[in-house]
Amino acid sequence: MERDVFESDKRAVVYLDLLGFAALVEANPQYFATEPFDHPSLRSLPTNAAAHRLTLFHQFLESNIASEQPNHATVFSDCGFGVFYTPKACADFAVALMQDFLRVNVPVRMGLGFGTFSAIGTTSSITGRSTVVRATFGGTSIVRAVAAESCGGKGMRIFVHRSFSELFTANRGDSGPKILPIPKEFKSVSCELDYVSRADPEQIDKWLASIREMAHSAAAEVQNHYSETLAAISRMLESELDNSP
């Protein structure tokens, strides 16, 4: 949780997206009830894999938001934003979130950006027969975080926009997560956040098992997401060995 930070118009933002969700919904179009699963009227319905994954996504994202209390957060459907005053707090949040999602077999990809941010407000209204929900916010931090997540890199990874990496590297110090170069540079993205180093080896083995389990049940056309994730984690572990005394 951030404390005693200087107020400014600049923010560090993490944008996250639930991977493969569109395909999962198409494969499971019926009985799309997300919560509560234990409601009496829903107990007789078949299990819906898409609804279950979306519920876990919201559950763990909102739990981390409650514990870390970012300056601003917006969650809708299969994606969300977390807005922080400092890149370090944002990176810590992203790493903890990724580790939680791996633990429960929820594949996500994230992007980190830094820049301006303004939240105008959130409202809902009924106009005739229409319900209109508005979440009005924006800034270069939002644009850059989205650009990082959608840069073209595959897998369960945390891609870092240049605006974020430059500031984070200059102020990181000796603690917290680190940034690693990626083999292929994308527009405005040349590195990713390491979310594995310093973790307990037994926990890492469990995450790797989760990734392989997700890959086993995934369609052939999305297998590259899982192979790229395993390759990225391998680089993270190799980097940790290279930097060990």
**What percentage of amino acids are in beta strands?**
25-35%
CATH topology: Alpha-Beta Plaits
Return the CATH class: Alpha Beta
Average pLDDT reading: 87
Outline the low-pLDDT stretches: none
Number of E-state strands: 9
Instruction: State the major sheet.
Output: 7 strands, mixed
Radius of gyration using CA atoms only: 19 Å
Q: Count structural domains.
A: 1
How do the SSEs run, as a string of H and E? EHHEEHEEEHEHEEHH
Structural class of the secondary elements? alpha+beta
Q: How many angstroms does the end-to-end distance come to?
A: 31 Å
Helix content: 40-55%
Q: How does the overall form come out from the CA principal axes? A: globular
Lateral arrangement of strands in the main beta sheet: 2-3-1-4-7-9-8
Task: Describe this entry's structure for a reader.
The protein has 245 residues and is of the alpha+beta class. The protein has a single domain, classed as Alpha-Beta Plaits (2-Layer Sandwich). It has helices at 21-27, 49-68, 87-103, 140-149, 162-171, 201-217, 223-242; strands spanning 10-18, 72-76, 79-84, 108-116, 118-127, 130-138, 158-161, 179-186, 189-193. The two termini are 31 Å apart.
